[in-house]
Design a protein that fits this description.
- The chain is α+β, with helices and mostly antiparallel strands.
- It has a domain of 66 residues.
- It contains three helices and three strands.
- A three-stranded antiparallel β-sheet has the order 1-2-3, with no helix packed on it.
- The longest helix is centred in the middle third of the chain and has 43 residues.
């Protein structure tokens, strides 16, 4: 019974490991370019990646998962719930003190004169 659980967990990890690169976005989908004909310059706007855009949600989710894991190992089902709530609270407190990084980076370039 225990071996079957380990095999199932290993197979699910393999499926997730294969699925992540398949559904990943390309870098060109996160970049917008605008050209100006008056001064012959180009402006590039780079969109932040998924982690940068949803950093608070990731941090709270990771805190909840770690708290639930520790609580489940120490206290069973009831400890799982209490650990999850404590982890979510700790993650929320941590994100409240984090410095914001949700900005769009602008890169201005001028073409070379040949």
């Amino acid at each position: 019974m225990l071996v079957k659980r380990y095999i199932t967990t290993f197979l699910m990890a393999m499926v997730v490991g294969v699925a992540i690169p398949v559904f990943a976005q390309s870098a060109s989908a996160q970049t917008s370019r605008y050209y100006s004909s008056s001064n012959r310059s180009r402006t590039t706007y780079k969109k932040p990646n998924v982690y940068r855009r949803h950093r608070k949600a990731f941090t709270i989710g990771i805190g909840t998962g770690i708290g639930a894991l520790v609580g489940g190992m120490l206290g069973g089902k009831k400890g799982l719930v209490i650990g999850g709530l404590a982890g979510a609270g700790g993650g929320a407190l941590f994100t409240h003190k984090q410095r914001p990084k949700n900005y769009v980076r602008r890169v201005y370039t001028r073409p070379r004169n040949y």
